[in-house]
Structure formats: C-alpha cells, structure tokens
Amino acid sequence: MPKSVFILKCTIFLLFFCSSLYLRNYIAFYERAKFSFKKEIFCPKNNQSFSNDDYSKNDLENECEYLWRGNRSAICRWINYHGKINSSHKDETWAENLKDCDQWIKARGYPLEANSAEEADFPIAYSISLYKDVDQVERLLRLIYWPQNLYCFHVDAKSPDYLHLAIQRLSRCFANVFVTKSEYVFWSHYSVLRASLNCLNDSATKYANHSWKFIINLSGQDFPLKTNREFVAILKTFNNTNDVELAQENQFSRYWYEHRLIFDKYGNLITHKPIFELFKLPIPYDLKILKGNLAASLSRKFVEFMLNNAVSLAFIKWLEGTDTADEHLWATLNYNVIRGYGIAPGGFDQRCVNFSKLVHQRFVSRYVKWRDGNVQCHGKYVRDVCIFGVGDLANLISSDKTQFFANKFYTNYQTMAFYCMEKWMLNKIRRNATIDSERLIKTDGLYFNGKICM
C-alpha cells in the first residue's frame, strides 16, 4: 500500500473516531444535564457568556421565563455573566439619586397606600442589617415596602461613608423607615446580635406608637418569596407564636469559654477565638442553650418581654462574651420555661418539641441552602451557605416553597438570578397573590405552642 494512501486512511479513521467520541460526550452531557433541584447542572466547557447588552428588555424577560422553568440552555447562557443588568447605579454615588425624594418614590413605584384593609390592620416591622451594596438593599426595600409597615436599617460601622450617607438619605424619604445606631460588626461575634437588638429596641420604644404586630429580622442579602398580603395571612394564623429555628447546640465551646476578637498590629481582624482559661459557666438561671437562625419572625409581645424581663436581660448580657450569640438568643428564650414567668410570649411548649424530628422546613422565616442535604446549590458556597445562582430559580419559586425569604443573593454574582427573581416578585405583587395559609400551617406542623403539635 502506498504511503500516501495509508496516511489518508489513518487520517480519515482518526477524524471519524474523534467525531464519534465528541458526539458521545455531547449526548452524555445533555443526558446528565436534565434539570433537577438535586443534581448538578453541567454546561459545555466552551459555553458562551452573553452580555445583557445583547438583549432588549423584552428579551431579558423572556430569558427570565426560561430560567423560572429551569431551562438548561438559558441557565448555561447566563451562568458566567456577573455584570450589571439595567442598572447604572454605583454605591459611591448612589446618594445622588435621592436629592428629590418625591421624584424617586414615583420613579421606583413605591406604594403610597395599603393594598387592603386587612394589611392596613396588621402592620409588620422589619429589622435589616447590612454592610454593603446599597442598590441591592434598596431593591429589597422596594419589594417589601408598604406605608403601614415599619422598617429599621442597621449599617455596619465599618462600612464606607458613602454607604452610610445613602442609607440615611433613603430613610429620610419615608416616614416609616429609620436607621438605628451603628455597631462594628464581626462575623460570629456578639456584635451581630447587638445590631439586630438595636433595631428591635428602637422599634419597640422610639416607635412605641406604631402598631406593628410582628418584626421580621433580615440581612441585606435576603430576598422575599412572599408578598405582604401573604405575610399577613400567614402571620395571623401564628396567633402571636414566634417563628424561630430550633435545634440542639452541640458545640459547647461556643459558650463554655469567653471569646474575644484578635486583631493584628494593623487593626485587621485575625479571628474570634475562645480563651480557655476564662470560663463562662454557669449559664444564668440554668437556661438550656439552643441554637437557631438570626432570621426570625417575632411577635411584639415577645420583643417587649425580651427587652424588659430580668432573666432575658441577664442572658443577653451573658451572651456578650460567647461565640455566635445571634444563633442562641431567640431559640433559647423560646424553648425554656422562664423562671418567675413561664413560657415566653409566643414561645414553645417543651412537651411538643422532639429534637429527633425537627427539620428545617418547620422554620419558615428564611430558606437557607447549607452545604448538606439533598438539594443542589447551583450557585456557589460562601461559609457553607449557598449564594443562589440562575440554576436555583425554579426551586425558589416553586409553589410548595413555604419560607418567607431566601438567603443569600449577591447582585454581582450571576446577576440574572436577582434580576429575574425581582421580576417574578413584582409580577406576584401585581397579581395580588393569595395563599391558603391554614393549609400551609397544618401541612407542615410548624409550631410547638400546643395549638399544633405534630
């Protein structure tokens, strides 16, 4: 066989073999990539990242429709896009937008009156802690704002001046929005809890004449999954019961020893660590420490009790030197029988609490995807918490999602995720969506106050 013919046959064979291999892998990719909340989404390595400049407003909304349905092709189109979408606002100059409050409120579409008499008669307060991203925080406020409610912002004292200025100006545009005293906040330190307590205290004292029924504790990275109408319908069925996550605390070193912030010579935080020579025990009034989530829906009666009861105040003071105090306050006060008082207002009857059966679904104030469980995070993990991406939207908007808020979103990460969630929620508000709150409560068996005990 001539050498040239042999080379030609080898070339044809290699081309055929490589094409077959590519086709097999291509088909396998699409077989693996069938959308599921529980499976990872595989996108081709040569996946093209699109810019929002390639799309009109209508095109973007059509893309959202695909993402809401969990369309694999749309997810892969936007999974690598992290730029701005229909927004030119920068945090550094954001305060300039608020020189004319009336114009701003009108342009942004803030409601000027309650949506219904039922909502007007059941105002809700919000405590929102933030340290960055004014644009995201304002968009959160826009989605949950109603004039009958009350809104408190806590801005980390370490945040830049332009962020403090922007939030101050934003609050001055509304009679029912205010900014509480700033604390220097450090992760897992008592200051995280102190920031929320500042808002709760001001809401109960400085705004004592406001008739809010519940206060919902949030961060600037939360996103609403329910409308105000739905919040009211569900909270009314609580019958003043607090919605607090409840779990055993097995990391005893968090509160057995004094914890202190350690800084380097330049003032940068190194760690928040226990000092084993300094014991914190005993716990005031023999309280059993439980843990939960800083996010919670707390009845007004509970907040007033917490801020005035001697046992509660002693416990809050004792928490100052512990680790993750923000995870311990609500849960501990809601579970324990308080000496000289009994069960805290809206607290749980211990006879109804079976820790072996407690699941995250029984806590509805916040949906968090931790680095565990059987639901895939299609974004990324930061400190073991999922930062939601475009592949998570179908799960978040599913009709069986019972939670009030989803945590966390970053507007500079897979930005179509926040953009499309925002469109979905605005559509939901316009539809004036309703909810069968009684069915929701009875199905999940959420509460441990003796009224519902499953």
UniProtKB/TrEMBL annotation:
Coiled coil: none
One Gene Ontology CC term in the entry: membrane
Database matches in InterPro entries: Glyco_trans_14 (IPR003406)
Residue ranges of the TM segments: 6-29
Protein localization: Membrane
Pathway entry: Protein modification; protein glycosylation
GO function term, MF aspect, one: acetylglucosaminyltransferase activity
Pfam families recorded: Branch
Alphabetical UniProt keywords: Glycoprotein, Glycosyltransferase, Membrane, Signal-anchor, Transferase, Transmembrane, Transmembrane helix
Membrane topology value: Single-pass type II membrane protein
Principal localisation: membrane
Recorded family membership: Belongs to the glycosyltransferase 14 family.
PANTHER family: BETA-1,3-GALACTOSYL-O-GLYCOSYL-GLYCOPROTEIN BETA-1,6-N-ACETYLGLUCOSAMINYLTRANSFERASE 3 (PTHR19297:SF185), GLYCOSYLTRANSFERASE 14 FAMILY MEMBER (PTHR19297)
Protein name as it appears in the record: Uncharacterized protein
Organism: Romanomermis culicivorax (Nematode worm)
